[in-house]
Amino acid sequence: xxxxxxxxPVGLYDPAxxxxxxxxxFVAHIKGVKSHDIVQRGLTVLxxxxxxxxxxxxxxxxxxxxxxxxxxHDFFLSQGINLPEQGRYGAGLVFLPxxxxxxxxxxxxxxxxxxxxxLTLIAWRKVPVDGSVIGEIARSTEPLIRQVFVKGNYEQxxxxxxxxxxxxxxxRTISDSSLxxxxxxxxxxxxxxxxIYKGMFTPSQLRDYFKDxxxxxxxxxxxxxxxxxxxxxxxxxxxxxxxxxxxxxxEINTVKGNRNWMRAREALLASNEIPGDISRLFPIIR
Length: 286
Description:
27% of the residues lie in helices and 19% in strands. It is built from seven helices and eight strands; from the N terminus they run E-H-E-H-E-H-E-H-E-H-E-E-H-E-H. The strands form two sheets. Strands 1-8-2-7 form a four-stranded antiparallel β-sheet, covered by helices on one side. Strands 4-5-3-6 form a four-stranded antiparallel β-sheet, with helices on one face.
C-alpha cells in the first residue's frame, strides 16, 4: 500500500501553503543530573499543553506529539544492548514501511551507509509500542518503529557528522527508489547525544504508546516536548516534533523560500569538515 505524506493540490487546497501553530515545553535539571523524574515532568508538561494540540475527525488521532531526551545510556544497557561508553556510539529512532520486504530493504540501505562512513553496526532493536491507544487515522499510516545502534572510533563531534552523512545518503537512496512505502522511511533522530520519541499522537497518547518512556531506567537531565496544531495542514508521523535539534512554536511561513534558497546555494557549498563529495548530502533540506 502506498503511503502519501500529503494530498495533491485540489480545489482550494495546495500543500505549498501549509503552516502550523503549536505548543512547546522544556524541563531541565540545572546541574545536569539525569533522572527519570525529569522525563516524567516533561511528559506532565506535555499533558498540560493538550489545548495547544489538535485531533482529527476520528477525535482520537493527534496532530503530533513528541519528546527529546538525552541519550538514555542506562536504559539501553538494561535492554541488553552491548554499548561502548557514552559519546562513543550513536543511536536513532527509525520509521520504516510496514511491508516486511520494504522494511528490510530500508534497513539494508541504512546499514550500507553506516559501513561506508566508517561506522560499525551494533544492533537493531524493536521498539515496544501499543498501537491500540492511537486513532484510526494515525493507525492507517503507522510505520514500523525500530532503533539502530552504531559505534565509531571518533571524537564525538566527528561521530555526529558521520551519523548525519549516513542518514542523509540513506534518505536520498530510499527517496529515489520505487518503494511503495518509501515515504514511511524517516529517522526522527540519529545522534550520539539525544533520542527522540514522536508520532501522530495526542499529548496523552505519547506516554502510553512508547513503553520505553515509563521505564524507571529512562533518565535524562532535559526533556523537550511538543504538541502540534497543524493549522491548514495534514499531520504526518514525520512532521511531529521535536525535530532532530529543535522544536518550534508558531507559524513558519517561509519554509518554501528557505528550501528554494538552500537549493540555489547547494552548488556553492564546501566544508573542510565533510571529506569527499559533498553532493552526497543533497538535498540539504528535503
